[in-house]
Design goal:
The structure is a homodimer of 293-residue chains. By secondary structure, chain A is α/β, with parallel strands linked by helices. Chain A has two domains: 102 residues, ATPase, nucleotide binding domain (Nucleotidyltransferase, domain 5); 153 residues, ATPase, nucleotide binding domain (Nucleotidyltransferase, domain 5, 2-Layer Sandwich). Chain A contains ten helices and ten strands. Chain A has a five-stranded mixed β-sheet. Chain A is globular, with a radius of gyration of 19 Å. Chains A, B: This is fructokinase.
Chain lengths: 293, 293
């Protein structure tokens, strides 16, 4: 059975892997994200000589995932030094003569969960990551969501918690969702890393308030059939029941559906692919690239 | 050329029409929405004897548009007397032996604009109506957006304007978008109907603040290629430049795309089908129902 290559291109580290067409990871390697020259040389070295049919890249963003665009394949306006306007697809094509898939890490993760994880058998799902930043990808009618570009759901505006006076970390919007609820906001606000806060610290109620607001808006705008929440902050499993309760309180009976009324524990869930969600997402992008040839 | 029937089923009035498969309305009639018995008898009488190949119903909501659901075809939890749980598709099928299309009025309008109006040639667009209520429908990858159910974009949470102390009209959420920015909120807040307020009344700055926040969230979550804004409130054309300016200010350069940076007047527009957007939407639903046979 042919194998596929996968690159989870993160702002902090790159994970490269080899896997099967049904989503099983056989081999992986990880290294820090430094400069494009250095990091991509490590990527090249990992895949050189491997017998693979396609490679998928799930990348940090913003990126240009629109195939008809002149800048398709680029990481676009990142503040990360050296990576702005870097075309990762062009590099991969110059080195490997196989189809290259490319999308945001979170669109990839949504597709991976749709194919092999918590979103199997559904028409739609979203994958939300809450970690150093907040991002989300979506599958709608079985396809990854694109339009003008890709979703940037982490930067929506939210209403402030009445007891929160923290100014927010987002360089663009200060107190958008990411600015108030990503990992750095938690640690700056409370003076401790999330992992150092007790499970019953008031930080988690506030965090759930912001994340539930975001989910409310995602539900009212996209109506996904499943919401999958991963990333470092979501390792705090006490957040799930808090989010479930807060979301029901915010919606206040407006969306009447069993998924919310009685089955919310099965509606808003952890990635079924666990810590492989990102790498399997890139594998899913490779499979899609192969299917599209 | 075969003709199609269209029903724009609104909470205040029903509009029925006959049109062509390329979106031209040939004949129309309108009557107030009273009880289902009375109103649907008028619908039946209008279409009886007409030579039509399919009928589309674009309905006020919430509705159940999911074909596999046992309550498909129903208006679900409306507070409007007598209409809750009324199955409009079942009634139409019992009277007319043609395919019946059914969706929200705004999903229909998005499809109509996608086929024949401002969204032609694009993969995606959203249609937002701002009137007695606020609602929006979406076309994604050429198909109307469904998932758990249909979008309910009018009820997203927004951040309050610093000078607004109005409590909001929404019976579920008080001060969600619809509660603060639909027509009734404008008239209750200012003591005058929107049409009675001057073009430079501060009401419009506040209205633009709320609508731009909503569009920011729609863009960050759905990334539509075009935003079409109709409904009674959007007849106040001075709102468009105010919304354009406020949206750019809120996004603050985060989404870098020509549609927003330089062509925003062509990105956020009035319905190209004008006052026919709703009825043409229902016609588009009829065409879709015929295509799906």
């Amino acid at each position: 059975m042919g194998l596929l290559g996968a690159i989870e291109a993160g702002g902090t580290k790159f994970v490269c892997g080899i896997g099967t067409k049904d989503g099983k990871i056989k081999e992986r390697i990880s290294f820090p994200t430094t400069t494009p020259d250095e990091t991509m040389a490590q990527v090249e070295s990992f895949f050189t000589g491997q017998e693979i049919d396609a490679i998928g890249v799930g990348s940090f963003g913003p990126i240009d995932p629109i195939k008809s665009s002149p800048t398709y394949g680029c990481i676009t306006t990142t503040p990360k030094p050296f990576w702005s306007q870097y075309n990762i697809v062009e590099f991969m094509k110059s080195k490997f003569n196989v189809p290259i898939g490319f999308d945001t890490d979170v669109n990839g993760a949504a597709l991976g969960e749709h194919l092999w994880g918590a979103g199997q058998g559904l028409d739609s799902c979203i994958y939300v990551t809450v970690g150093t930043g907040i991002g989300a990808g979506a599958v709608v009618n079985g396809q990854m969501l694109h339009g003008l570009s890709h979703p940037e759901m982490g930067h929506i505006m939210v209403r402030r918690h009445p007891e929160d006076s923290y100014e927010g970390t987002c360089p663009y919007h200060a107190d958008c969702l990411e600015g108030l609820a990503a990992g750095p906001a938690i640690s700056h606000r409370w003076g401790l890393q999330g992992v150092e806060l007790g499970k019953d610290h008031p930080a988690w109620e506030m965090e759930a308030y912001y994340l539930a607001q975001a989910l409310m808006n995602y539900i009212l705008i996209l109506s996904p059939q499943k919401i999958i929440m991963g990333g470092g902050v979501m390792k705090q499993e006490q957040l799930f029941p808090l989010i479930h309760r807060e979301l029901r309180s915010l919606l206040n009976g407006y969306v009447q559906h069993a998924a919310i009324d009685s089955d919310i524990e099965q509606y808003i869930v952890s990635p079924q692919l666990g810590d492989n969600a990102g790498l399997c997402g890139a594998l899913a992008l490779a499979r899609l690239a192969l299917d599209e040839v």
